[in-house]
Every structure is written in C-alpha cells, then in structure tokens.
Amino acid sequence: MVTYGVSEPTSPARRVSTPHGAFNELIYVHQVPLPGSAANTVQVAKMCDAFTRAGAKTTLVQPAPPPDAGHRLAAFYGLSHPPKVAAGFAPKLPGRMLMFGLSACLRHASRRHSLIYTRSISVAYIAARLGYNVAIEMHEPLWGDKPNDRKRFEKLIQARAFTSLVVISEKLADWYAETCPALAGRIIVAHDGADPVTKSASPLDLQGDFRIGYTGHLYPGKGMELIAAIAPLLPDAQLHVVGGRPEDISYWQDELAKVGTGGNITFHGHQPHSEVAGYIAAMDIVLAPYLRFVQGLGGKGRNLSDWMSPLKLFEYMGHGKAIVCSDLPVLREVLTDGVNARLANPDAPEEWVSAIRALHSSPETRVALGARARVDFVEKYSWDRRAEHILDGLRMALTCSPEKSAV
Which of 112, 108, 105, 119 is nearest to 83 (CA)? Predict the structure, then answer.
C-alpha cells in the first residue's frame, strides 16, 4: 500500500484527558446547518463527537445555529460528547463561503492554539490566508467545472499554514497525489466510519420472515435500481428501504407500480440517525447496492463510485450483519468477498439473487461473515479510531514540518 502521511489506523484505540502536540483547539467549520438529512451532516456530527472523545477541544461553527444546538445534535445523532456549537456569518451573497470562513476564524479561533478543520475549499483558503493552521477533508476530486475552487485549492496547499489533506479512500489519495505533487507526504487516508454497537439495539418489529435491508438515500446510482430489479426475483423475502426524500420514494413507488412489482418492498422514509440502528438490527441481510455511476446530493453528473467510502457500509459492519455489496474497486479497500461480505456485480442482478439465496439457506455463513465484518470494523473503522488517526496525523504534520511555526 502506498503511504500518504499517516495512512493506517492507529492501534489500539485510546483516550486522552488533555490534548497533546501542536494545537489544543479544533475548530470544525461546516457550511451546512446541523441537524440535517444529508450524509455529510451525519459524518460531521459524528466526527466532532469523536474528536471531543479523543481529547481535542472541539467547536463546530455553522450558519445560524439555534440556542440549544448542542442538545439537538446530541438527540438527533445520538452523540455522547456533542461539541460546542457556534455561529458563523454566511450571508446569501457572492463570496458567502469566504465571509463564513473569515467570521469563523476571527470569532472563534486562535492563530496560536487552534487548527481549522473543514470540508470547504473556500473556508480553508481564507483560513490559510489569515495564517490559521488548517486541514481540509475532501470526499471527491476537484471537478473541472469549479475553476475558482481549483485555483483556491492550489494556493491553499502552497500556503505556510496548510497542514494536511484528509481523504476517504486510497483511490482518492492516488488521484490527489498524481494531480497535486505539492501534497507529497501531507495526505491522510481515513475511511469513513460508524459508531460501535456497544449493546444490541432492540430490533424493530418489521414485516417479513426473511428481511433484507437498505439504509440511505435514493439518489441515482445509490442502489434503488438494483433493489427494484431483484425484489420480484425474491418473492419469499421482504425488502425494507430506510431513507430517501419523499419525492424519491414517490418516484420509485410509481415506477414499481407501472411494472406491477414492489409488493415485497416497504419504504420507511427518512429516520433520525439515532433510530436507524433498530432497523438494521431487524435485518437478516443488508445491502450496499451501488451502481458503477453514483450521484450524490445535487447530482451534477459527477460519478462518486471511484472514490466513495459509504457510511452505511461501516454501520452494517458495526452491527455484525451479513452484507451483500457491489464489487467495486474502491469498496475492496474495506471488503473481501467471502471473508467479511459477499460481493456481487452491480450490472448483474442475478448475482445478487444468487448471493442472497445462498445466505438465506445458510444462517451459519451469515453469522460468520457478520462476525468478521464486526471485528474488522472495531479494529479499523469506528469514529473513534478515525478521529484518533486523523489527530495523530495532524499533530505529526504540525510538529515535524520545519516550515510551520510552533502553536
């Protein structure tokens, strides 16, 4: 495996009572208000929670938070250590992200003691220009239709205050290393994660004697296309779809009705993240049915399937469930067919049906796959492991770089 900065999870997991290294405040600046339904809000909330548990004094800066934002985040996402939540100024004007970053830095951060952490190129750029130590997390490449982002990113990584780039897969790290040679040694690979299941969630009483589950959005390529194709071929199973916007659910219900199928598919709609565990616990098999072209929120024709690190995959692993997943190169960074999951061709619904039927007839195989998936999850992919891994990489970067001033 190619090493980019600190690319392997640390071991074993640990807790520290006080931060150590080159900074003692982490200011997570995120442009999307929390709580929300998008996957990025789950990831940000969970990472702030985990950063705090790992010993970093963490503040989440977002546009216009309500007075009780911390309590709301704790309840909505099931956080044990919710961060302090603060407001950033983000007017609906051109350059709003630059102003948001500017206000976040000036109001809430210290050049001497803080590190700005963000998923916004504009916020990272303005923070670095102001001299604040900054790290940026990216979940996709720099797309060609955003020339301003490209220019700002190139200036960002040359800035003295730039610390590290955090990415969610080795495939994405390869792209940035080849595209931006100045990043050499400053890329941290940290797959996404999930919460450990410390006690079994109470399974919900769902329909069906054999239950197959999917959790997540229904954007094009996320997998509802495959679910619709395999459902008629599995008449003895009940498929439960947890998530999706009302308009997406209506679309698929209409599509299924047109061809007279879908009688064994139940749509549960979007659920608070803290309640999803009960659905997963009730499933016999869980699906990650990504197509070769996956769109995220907003679409715009961008394919995420080469770079993604899906939250649901780690949630499934944390629950110790038997997973049937699309056989895509980036997902093989986490899953191995026949070891911790069954992998199937996303272009061949019959492979999915065959894998599901084999698991249906072999409860012991389901248990074995799920048990190994959970072991792999605990060792590598919990939010705590991810937070500790990233913090270690950031502190190493700040401590070891001769071009950085001590903070």
Answer: 108
- The Cβ-side half-sphere exposure at 327, using a 13 Å CA radius, reads 13
Look at residue 15 in the predicted model and tell me its pLDDT.
32
**Spatial strand order in the sheet of 25-29:** 84-88, 57-63, 25-29, 114-118, 134-138, 162-167, 187-189
All residues at 6 or more sequence positions from 281 whose CB lies less than 8 Å from its CB, including other chains:
200, 201, 202, 203, 204, 319
Q: How far is CA 154 from CA 4, 151, 176, in A?
A: 18, 5, 11
pLDDT digits (tens, 9 = 90+) for 273-288: 888 999 999 999 999 9
Structure tokens at 407: 């903070």
Mean pLDDT for the stretch of residues 156-162:
95
More confident residue, 94 or 284: 284
Domains of the chain: 25-193+383-400 (3.40.50.2000), 211-380 (3.40.50.2000)
Residue 164 CA: distances (Å) to CA of 51, 173, 396, 397: 16, 12, 10, 7
* DSSP symbols for 140-172: S---TT-HHHHHHHHHHHHSTTEEEEEES-HHH
- The phi and psi torsions of 250 (rounded to 5 degrees) equal -60, -40
Digit-coded pLDDT (tens) for 293-331: 987 665 566 788 999 999 999 999 999 999 999 999 999
Name the nearest CA neighbour of 98 among 175, 151, 22.
151
